[in-house]
Amino acid sequence: MNPIHDSFSFLIESLFQLYMLLVLLRFLFQLTRVNFRNPIVTPIVKLTQLPLAWLRRFVPGLFGVDLSAIVLFIFLGMVKLFLLALIAGGMVSPLGAAIWSVAKLLDMSFWIFIIAIFMQAILSWFMPQQGNPITVLLNDLTNPVLRPIRNLLPAMSGMDFSPIVALIALNFLQRLLISPLFYAAAQLM
Fold first, then answer.
1. In whole angstroms, how far apart are CA 116 and each of 52, 140, 141?
2. Are 71 and 18 in contact (CB under 8 A)?
């Protein structure tokens, strides 16, 4: 690949990946009922508000789940793949691109929870205060994952092992679910 194509591919990959991350965070924040007044959450809400507000006119929610964020994420993933294929001089199957986008959504979701749980565990050693916006955000985001584990496996001798169990379970599920989807997408593209 020549340097111009490589540069544009990098730019498209970076910009789309960043905005897809913001859309996914917004979706996960709504799903886990994170406080939208948190100073860390507010910029993400503002940056994603316009396209999501427009999409909500056509894509209704379902059982409190904002489907417009999922539709926007999948659309962005497909556009990214089409643009990268266009730069490379190839074509992409729409079905393959859609499956790849769904796999990417799930993969990024797992990684967000894995990183959030890991950060929460590390920060609990150094910043145990509950009023910090980062701590509050991480607690709000990871509580739905950690709470069921904590109910089954309470703290022993003051040690909370739920993050370790959650990290192992998330990694297992990620490997079990995501790889077949990426493989299917690659076969269709």
1. 24, 10, 8
2. no
CA distance 66 to 36: 15
CA distance 59 to 8: 32
Tokens of 107: 């993969």
Tell me the pTM: 0.89
Q: Report domain extents, the chain.
A: 3-188
Q: How many CB atoms lie within 10 A of CB 62?
A: 9
What's CA 172's distance to the chain center, in Å?
A: 17
Distances (CA, A) of 82 to 12, 18, 33, 146, 155: 11, 17, 34, 38, 49
126-to-130, 132, 135, 137, 182 alpha-carbon distances in Å: 12, 12, 11, 16, 38
pLDDT in tens, 16-58: 999 999 999 999 999 999 999 999 999 999 999 999 999 989 9
